[in-house]
Amino acid sequence: MSVDTTAPASAPANVEADDLPPGRGMRLTNWAANYIDERTGMSGLVKELGRKIFPDHWSFMLGEVALYSFVVILLSGTFLTFFFQASMAETVYHGSYAPW
User: Fold this and answer.
1) What is the pLDDT of residues 65-81, one digit of tens each?
2) Looking at CB atoms within 10 Å, which of 2, 38, 58, 67 has the fewest?
3) Does residue 53 contact residue 64 with C-beta atoms inside 8 Å?
4) b/e per residue 2-13 (b: at least 16 CB within 10 A)
């Protein structure tokens, strides 16, 4: 028995999910987005910024990982700069690993 998950249960079997009219919440969101775009004309700016935030090529992810790693190193280094107490005193290990 095969179940079609592309269309909602209330839709006829021959109607695609994309052909259905949007729900009430989606209509309100679309109306608000169109209203703001007509009043401000910001759609071009949002589209351009969206391309910069979500690049097309997968290799940009490597640069993002490097950037986030660098930020973590800067934050942890700043934390250690303020709170690390350097000491040459010997420490005694009280753990379960016997060779230490």
Assistant:
1) 899 999 999 999 999 99
2) 2
3) no
4) eeeeebeeeeee
Lookup result for tokens 């994309």: 18
> What span, in angstroms and rounded, lies between the C-alpha atoms of 94 and 100?
9
Structure tokens belonging to residue 61? 């992810």
Cα separation of 95 and 91, whole Å?
12
65 vs 15, 45, 73, CA distance in Å? 43, 26, 12
Distance, CA of 47 to chain centre: 17
Which tens digits make up the pLDDT trace of 2-35? Answer: 455 555 555 555 555 556 566 666 777 777 777 7
This prediction's pTM: 0.38
Q: Residue 17 is which amino acid? A: A
Give the whole-angstrom CA distance, residue 10 versus residue 14. Answer: 12
Count of residues making up the chain: 100
